[in-house]
Structures are given as C-alpha cells and as structure tokens.
Amino acid sequence: MSEKPGKPVAASAIDKHVYKVFPNDMNSHNTVFGGMIMAKCDRLALVVAERHSAHVCVTAAVDSIHFRAPAKGNDTLLFNLSLNRSWGSSMEIGARVEAENSYTGETRHILSAFFTFVALDENGRPVDVPPVIPETRDQVRRFESAEIRREGRLRTRDEISRANG
Ligand SMILES: CC(C)(COP(=O)(O)OP(=O)(O)OC[C@H]1O[C@@H](n2cnc3c(N)ncnc32)[C@H](O)[C@@H]1OP(=O)(O)O)[C@@H](O)C(=O)NCCC(=O)NCCS
C-alpha cells in the first residue's frame, strides 16, 4: 500500500462525457461499433488514472466488458468513469456508458467494464500511486468489491503466464 496522501474519487472522475454518434460510427448491423466504444473507454480511463497518479499510465488489463444493449444512430453516448481502488502501482477504474435519446431524454445502459492501469516512473518502472478515498455509499461498495476482482484478475494473469511458459 502506498504511503502517499489519499485522494477522493471525485478528484479524478469523469461524469457524463458526451459523444454524439454519427453514421461513420456504425457497424454492418447498423448499431454503434463496439470497438469504438471500448477504445473511447480506454482513453478516458487513462485520463482518470493519470489524474489520480500524476504519472504516465498504461493499460494492464481490461475485464468484464459487458454490452448490455446496442447504441443506435443519432444516440448521444454518455461516458462515466471513476477510480474504484488503488493498490501499489495499479488502479481499477470502472466504466459505465449510457446512450441518450437527446430528443426525449430517455437513457439506456450500454456498457460496463473494469480497466486496470499501472503508473510508471520516468524509467518505465511501476511506481506507487495515492490511495483513493471513497466518500459515497456507491464508492465504498465499489472499493470493497474491487479487492475481490483484483484477486480473480491476478489469478487469471498467472494462469495465462503458466499456460504460455
Ligand atoms: C503493466 C506492466 C507495467 C506491469 O509490469 P510488471 O513488470 O508486470 O510489474 P509488476 O509485476 O511489478 O506489477 C506492477 C503492478 O501491476 C499489476 N499488474 C500487472 N499485470 C496485471 C494484470 N494483468 N492485471 C492486473 N494487474 C496487473 C500488479 O498487480 C502490480 O500492482 P500493484 O503495484 O498495485 O501491486 C507491464 O506488464 C506492461 O508494461 N504491460 C504492457 C502495458 C501496455 O503496453 N499496455 C497497452 C498500451 S497502453
């Protein structure tokens, strides 16, 4: 655990980042291309990680990407990302994307995912980051469940390492 002073979740969170869907965002099924949404999440999660750590960060793992409903042409995507927990040099960031029909105000839950980023020092080595301070009931719930996800994630990483020699 890092000895740096803690930072609240709100100091790095991204709330309702807006992306207007245009025709070039569609797949051949005429719904929004999922890879575009994942790439945008990764980019925004990086911003959360770098705000929190004040270091260059890289994506170490992405897990539990669930597409819950399709986004459609002319939707407005709303990206919400926040830091769930940090350990030594690693941080888990939760992402939730909603699609808004801006004419009616109706929103639908499109995607949830967890990103793990690692902060690097000037020599490219992992460096400790500040602890996160959860302040709301939801933030405390996410903080606690992040520990369980980390155990599963590191187990999977070790299994992959063993399988690949
Ligand atoms: C992520 C990376 C820096 C970790 O380096 P490493 O030499 O394995 O370092 P360590 O074993 O000391 O692990 C450092 C931290 O990363 C975490 N980590 C490493 N691999 C992980 C994985 N697959 N999932 C979750 N956490 C992981 C470790 O748990 C550790 O966390 P902690 O400091 O909070 O305890 C390295 O694997 C890497 O550079 N990967 C490529 C990253 C990349 O190119 N991303 C895409 C482009 S941005």
Task: Briefly characterize the structure.
This protein has helices at residues 34-53, 137-163; strands at residues 7-8, 14-20, 56-67, 76-86, 90-100, 107-120, 132-133. The chain has 165 residues and is α+β, with helices and mostly antiparallel strands. It starts with 6 loop residues before the first strand and ends with a helix.
Task: Provide an overview of this structure.
The structure is a single chain. The protein is α+β, with helices and mostly antiparallel strands and 165 residues long. It has one domain: Hotdog Thioesterase (Thiol Ester Dehydrase, Chain A). It has two helices and seven strands. The strands form two sheets. The chain has a five-stranded antiparallel β-sheet. A two-stranded parallel ribbon has the order 1-7. The model has no long low-confidence stretch (mean pLDDT 96). The site of coenzyme A has 14 residues, from strand 3, strand 6 and helix 2.
Features:
single chain; 165 residues; alpha+beta; Thiol Ester Dehydrase, Chain A; five-stranded antiparallel beta sheet; two-stranded parallel sheet; 2 helices; 36% strand; globular; binds coenzyme A
